[in-house]
Design brief:
Serine Threonine Protein Phosphatase 5, Tetratricopeptide repeat; disordered N terminus
């Protein structure tokens, strides 16, 4: 077909479409070919004059060019159409649509939408498209404003409510998101998406009960929606309702046996419930479908390690490392399995392969020290740790490991020197400061101990161990007891059910002369940590003050069997003699 023939055909098409327009005047419609606008609801439009023939001619040309994939030429024809009828908002939105979707010229597309709205502020497609463009321009505030105006234009527009609520949730303005969705539910009470969105928002707010309620309401409309079932199961996990979570995962797998995510989460849940064989079954099912999933192999290996099936665990870890030698996490697990098997030289060799940039580097060196210490390889320990610090001088844990080694060897000054060196690199390390304080305590320097613990609390006011250490130190000396009580109570709130902190609280009560309260807390501490000679001695002291000599004597004797240090053993024997003299 030659050019003249094409023009005659196009001219005829123009007349046919113009005739159609006279029955339904105006360009106003949803732009075809625009995914972002396909959901726009038809709205009543003001009657307009018939379109300009030249504008319509170029619009038709643009549509033909679009069908031929000639995007740039189509856009050029749309610009000509606007030249002939610049007040027609549809043409501006049509141009904006192609600038936005095909060309990714977001700022130009936004300007075209704003021009359309300048001619007709109530033109819904322009507001909706502008909202999407602003979102992709990372300007959620303007996107929110566009969707709010869209709802003013069309109060029943479903997508506008859903987009608006999701933007509020993105901005963490959860109350507004909830209010928007609740407003929409008054219009459409059985909206699956609105109920589901409320569930996700409440879960983000950690209101897990409400989240589960809305997910359940959504499922009452669509009981077999796997994605909603998955979110409900995860919500049950957050609520620690592990049985309900497991049942929901099983329900998903009954509907979709190949749902890897549900099966994986079920396996992890079963591990937490100590049902290792059942967890292993789930991971093996995944492995049948995807034998190359190394993460699943790692989980299977860890279950074998937990079950003491060391050869099987080592086999899995070695398989993974053969495929991915740089997986330091799995190498660390392999080394642990070798330690359990007693293959210590091999374990050390694997730990040494973990490089300084790894998150497992410090822990690998800690394990090497434990192995070499058993082998009395003192020089090698110091050499490895000094080399490790040189390789990773800003890792505070490495200084703690080396100082800890010197502390166990009773070389406290060397330990202190290492810690000070670490603090030069890590000035605000609460853990290094704490350990310095603990060394000062062992050196008998109480004032420096207190100063160091206060420095820890300056860095981190919620450092539970420093709060406890300072409170207990005051109680031991019978000074600042009211402050000691506040310190230890705060430590208890931060780390409840810790035997040594509960013991400190009981000991403060003891020093305050509140013996009934003291015994109550010390009994709890003894239950939490039954093998500690100091906690056992403190409880015995409490019983002695409550005139329960027989209980006290039994506990003093029990503490002696725990191999206390010589000075404590002497003190315990003296207390037993004291009880005998009172008979």
């Amino acid at each position: 077909m030659n050019l003249d023939t094409q023009k005659r055909v196009l001219f005829c098409l123009c007349f046919l479409l113009l005739a159609a327009c006279s029955a339904n005047p105006g360009f106003r419609r949803v732009a075809s070919g625009s995914d972002s606008l396909q959901t726009v609801k038809p709205v009543a439009q003001k009657k307009t004059s018939p379109p300009d023939p030249s504008a319509y001619y170029h619009y038709l040309l643009s549509q033909l060019k679009l069908r031929e994939g000639k995007i740039d030429e189509a856009i050029e024809d749309l610009r000509f159409a606007i030249f002939f009828d610049r007040k027609e908002p549809f043409l501006h939105v049509e141009l904006a649509t192609h600038l936005y979707i095909q060309k990714k010229l977001l700022n130009e597309a936004a300007e075209e939408c704003k021009t359309a709205l300048g001619y007709d502020p109530d033109y819904l497609p322009a507001q909706l498209l502008l909202g999407q463009i602003y979102y992709h321009l990372k300007n959620p505030r303007l996107a929110i404003e566009s969707y709010r105006k869209a709802i003013e234009i069309e109060p029943n527009h479903k997508e506008a409510y859903l987009f608006l609520s999701s933007l509020y949730a993105y901005m963490q303005e959860y109350d507004k998101a909830i209010q928007t969705l609740e407003q929409f539910l008054k219009i459409e009470p059985n909206s699956l998406m609105a109920l589901y969105s409320l569930g996700t928002i409440y879960r983000e707010m950690k209101s897990y009960e409400k989240a589960a309620d809305y997910f359940s309401k959504a499922l009452s409309l669509e009981p077999y929606q796997v994605s909603i079932l998955l979110d409900l199961a995860i919500t049950y996990e957050f609520q620690n309702q592990t049985d309900k979570a497991a049942e929901t995962y099983q329900r998903i797998l009954a509907l979709d046996p190949d749902n890897k995510r549900a099966r994986n989460r079920l396996g992890q849940l079963l591990i937490r419930k100590k049902k290792l064989d059942e967890a292993l079954d789930q991971f093996r099912e995944i492995q049948k479908e995807d034998s190359g999933d190394l993460d699943i192999r790692a989980k299977i290996g860890l279950i074998y390690l937990e079950q003491g099936k060391l050869d099987e665990a080592i086999l899995e870890f070695n398989f993974i490392l053969a495929v991915n030698p740089k997986d330091d996490r799995v190498r660390y697990y392999l080394a642990l399995a070798l330690v359990e098997k007693g293959a210590l030289e091999e374990a050390v060799s694997e730990f040494k392969k973990i490089l300084p940039e790894s998150d497992f580097f410090a822990d690998s060196r800690r394990n090497i020290v434990l192995i070499l210490r058993k082998q009395n390889k003192r020089e090698e320990i110091v050499q490895i740790l000094e080399e490790s610090i040189k390789a990773k001088p800003n890792d505070g844990d490495l200084y703690l490991i080396l100082s800890g080694y010197y502390e166990k060897e009773n070389e406290l000054e060397k330990a202190l020197t290492i810690l000070r060196s670490g603090l030069e690199r890590n000035k605000d390390s609460a853990d290094l400061c704490f350990q310095v304080g603990a060394i000062y305590d062992k050196l008998g320097d109480f004032d420096r101990t207190v100063a160091q613990m206060r420095e820890v609390l300056r860095i981190n006011p919620d450092h539970a161990d420093a709060l406890n250490y300072l409170g207990y130190s005051y109680a031991e000396r019978g000074i600042h007891l009211e402050e000691a009580l506040k310190l230890v109570e705060k430590a208890m709130a931060l780390k409840p059910n810790m035997g040594y902190i509960t013991d400190s609280l009981g000991w403060v009560y003891f020093k305050l002369g509140l013996y009934e309260k003291a015994v109550t807390e010390l009994e709890k501490a003894n239950q939490l940590t039954p093998d500690d000679p100091t906690i056992t001695e403190h409880l015995a002291d409490g019983y002695a003050k409550m005139s329960q000599g027989q209980k006290a004597r039994e506990l003093y004797e029990k503490a002696l069997k725990m191999e206390p240090k010589p000075d404590q053993a002497e003190r315990l024997n003296n207390k037993i003699k004291g009880l005998e003299e009172k008979k």
